[in-house]
Amino acid sequence: MPTNRHLIRIARLMGEGLIAVAIFAGAATPVLAQTWPQRVVKFVLPIGPGSGTDIGARLFADRLAARWGKPVVVENRPGGDGIIAITSVINADDDHTLLFAPSGTFTVHPFLREKVPYDVRDLVPIARVSNTIVGIVVPGSLKVDSLAELVTLARAEPGKLNWSPTSGMTDIVTSAFLKSSGLDVVKVPYRDSVQGLNDLIEGRLQLYVTALAIVRSQADAGKVRIVALTNRERAPIFPNVPTAAEAGFPTLQLEGLVGLFGPRKMSSGLRERIAADIRAVADPAVSARLEATGQIVNIGTPDEFAAAIEEQRSRVAAATKDLGLKPAQ
């Protein structure tokens, strides 16, 4: 039968063991982060090859592969309004299969679909990579030089001007702006952004709200004119173009966010590590290449990215409320 001295010694050993377990558990996350990746990493995109997002994904994939010592492949899975790519990442449930996408891809789903076939909580933000520059664009032939002049023209000629968005988010925010401003402008949807751009150049479309990557070359050629940006700040590539807020229309603000997302089970330590690696490889060459596609490199931590997405979601929710749209159940 153990004596009191033996019982005290056993208790002390058990306590030391529990402390060791706790220390090991606390260290597990950084250890796992340090040993990742263990195999090929895949970036899944909801957009086809050649887009600004695709170019960014490939630039970072090449640099991260060199840093990690493992291949990083880019898989384009367009279609289904982004749902094909999103669900493929969620179903993989693997911290080596990540989503590289604009956050607006899924921010608007609850407001544009009767039912969303995935749980957004199954995706966690890893790092913001860039801000997409979104422009308010008119034909070069249209006699307006500012957003205020465009609004005045639309008010003077109700029902005679046509407009088009190129994404669900630009659709919601611009539609709410037009409604709150009392403007009667006819929306013309396009399946192909190239067709929309051609109609804009020809003057059949008078207002196009789109990523600058789509219209930059035509803007440089003078065939279309960018009268304002929806971003929070001016773009370095178009320093003389004001933001909509600067032009006097603060409700027409839309910040395009492109970044990396992982599965719900991904540890915070690993997400922080990947975000730090992305920041480390974001050299001037990457910034220059993405700027040419209408993006501004803006690397953010997981928490910063999550906060930016929440702000975007709140803005979209406010716009849908103004439009009378209800989120999916």
Explain how this protein is built:
There is one protein chain. By secondary structure, the chain is of the alpha/beta class. The chain folds into 3 domains: 34 residues; 163 residues, D-Maltodextrin-Binding Protein, domain 2 (3-Layer(aba) Sandwich); 96 residues, Periplasmic binding protein-like II (D-Maltodextrin-Binding Protein, domain 2, 3-Layer(aba) Sandwich), CATH 3.40.190. The protein is 47% helix and 18% strand. Strands 2-1-3-10-4-11 form a 6-stranded mixed sheet, sandwiched between helices. The chain has a 5-stranded mixed sheet with strand order 7-6-8-5-9. Helix 1 packs parallel to helix 10 and helix 7 crosses helix 12. The relative contact order is 0.17. About 5% of the residues have low confidence.
In brief, what are we looking at here?
The protein has twelve helices and eleven strands. The protein has three domains: 1-34; 35-132 and 259-323, 3-Layer(aba) Sandwich (D-Maltodextrin-Binding Protein, domain 2), CATH 3.40.190; 134-229, Periplasmic binding protein-like II (D-Maltodextrin-Binding Protein, domain 2, 3-Layer(aba) Sandwich), CATH 3.40.190.10.
